[in-house]
Amino acid sequence: MTRDPTGYPDQPGSGEDAVALVHPSGASARITHYGGHVVSWVDASGRERFYLSSRAQFGQGKSIRGGIPVVFPQFGTGPLPKHGFLRTRRWSLIAHVYTSATFRITDDEQTRALWPYPFIAELTVNLADMLTVSLTITNSGDSPFSFTAALHNYFAVTDVQLATVRGLSGLVYVDKMAAGTRSVEEAPDLHLRGQTDRIYISGPRQVTISSAVGSSSTVVGTDGFGDWVVWNPWREGSASLADMDPQDYLQMMCVEAARISDPVVLAPSAVWCGTEVIGAT
Ligand code: TA6
After folding, report:
1. Could you give the number of structural domains in the chain?
2. Which atom number of ligand 1 is nearest to the Cα of residue 76?
3. Of 32, 79, 274, 279, which one is least surrounded by beta carbons within 10 A?
4. pLDDT over threshold 80, residue 9
């Protein structure tokens, strides 16, 4: 999927307001204030590397379907809204040059009503040969808290049935499609054959999606996360999502840098940082 880096699919009434990054190589990226959400990265060869649903909703109390939703302070379901509350809130832009932008969001009355902790979250996106995304969480209160988090990457693939994920072999995974049972990944190259929703525990720091866009690969390296999530709703799952065309499951693969199995515990004034570096080869 190639998208004009200066343009954007029309989203009538979407309220999408994004910050653009541009690099002399021709690469570009866009990040919305809503959700502190990377919605596009076009690499130097002009290929869009993220899936973004044409039915995505912007700023309407929903997470944007595509790009990189920021998950904090709860991955998945639990006492808080699913995947936490940062992905559906407006962030402030605090720094922006051509190739880099930093967004910030802090606790407020609404977040404290859900989760009673003061925090500062910052998302920094750097565009160079690769795209680097860092999520930093500071405990700005006076009691410790713990959290789970993820950068919920929706990578673009030309055909999910041809794409593979390398790097997960030998890992234990929690299979949400099999009532949370644990299995060991045996495939050197993971092919998705149907609806998939797995948490790979304590994985390597790098995975590669082969045959991602055309014959090119997407390489994701991480620091501070530890787990990986692989998700694709397949035909049946995407049909139940109002913000996704049922055929779009073919064009996306979520391979997420996550911190789930070993939640972060932050003392007052302590800072955690999770980073991913994404390359296109
Ligand atoms: O990260 C995988 C997952 O937790 C799946 O279980 C699936 O529900 C997906 O996220 C998308 O969640 P969302 O709330 O954005 O529809």
Report:
1. 1
2. 4
3. 79
4. no
Provide, rounded to the nearest whole percent, the portion of the chain with pLDDT above 90.
89
φ and ψ at residue 114, rounded to 5 degrees: -90, -40
The predicted model scores a pTM of: 0.94
Any domain includes 9: no
Q: Residue 254 C-alpha to ligand 1 middle, in angstroms?
A: 9
Give the span between the Cα atoms of 86 and 5, in whole angstroms: 26
pLDDT of 98 above 60:
yes
The kind and range of the H/E element at 237 are: helix 234-239
**CATH number of the domain encompassing residue 231:** 2.70.98.10
Which of the four pLDDT bands, split at 50, 70 and 90, describes residue 258? very high
Which tens digits make up the pLDDT trace of 182-231? 999 999 999 999 999 999 999 889 999 998 888 899 999 999 999 999 99
Q: How many of the other CB atoms lie within 10 Å of CB of 124?
A: 20
Mean pLDDT of 246-253: 96
- pLDDT of 16: 62
Helix (H, G, I), strand (E, B) or coil at 124: strand
Does ligand 1 come within 6 angstroms of the Cβ of 152? yes
Residue minimizing CA distance to atom 14 of ligand 1: 82
* DSSP state letters, 198-218: EEE-S--SEEEEES-STT--E
- Within-domain flag for 139: yes
Residues 6+ apart with CB under 8 A from 237: 195, 249
Amino acid at 204: P
Full domain range(s) for residue 126: 18-280
Q: Is residue 3 situated within a structural domain? A: no
- Ligand 1 centroid–CA 76 distance in Å is 7
